[in-house]
Design brief:
With 87 residues, the protein is mostly helical. The protein has one domain: Acyl-CoA Binding Protein. The chain has helices spanning 2-14, 23-38, 51-61, 68-86. The longest helix is centred in the last third of the chain and has 19 residues, at 68-86. The chain is flat, with a radius of gyration of 13 Å.
Length: 87
């Protein structure tokens, strides 16, 4: 239960950042969040020229196989680092 509380706190902190993390950091946060909340990617890869959607899909897909708990732990650790760096 403590992990879920830490995860929810980290998610809330992600909305409090005063500076914008890099695109890579944002994609990593997104991918870990999706893996922690939904599990392995469950959507087809977008096609066409929607490069943002493709990047998000690929980032999430790169976390395939991680357990929800592992993804939560990694999200919390990443967010702690980003919070100190961008707050």
């Amino acid at each position: 239960m403590a992990l879920l509380e830490d995860f929810n706190t980290a998610v809330a902190q992600s909305k409090e950042l005063t500076k914008r993390p890099s695109n890579e950091e944002l994609l990593d946060l997104y991918a870990l969040f999706k893996q922690a909340t939904e599990g392995d990617v469950n959507e087809p890869r977008p096609g066409g020229f929607d490069f943002k959607a493709i990047a998000k899909h690929d980032a999430w897909n790169s976390k395939k196989g991680k357990t929800k708990d592992t993804a939560m732990e990694e999200y919390v650790a990443l967010m702690k680092n980003l919070y100190h760096q961008y707050k």
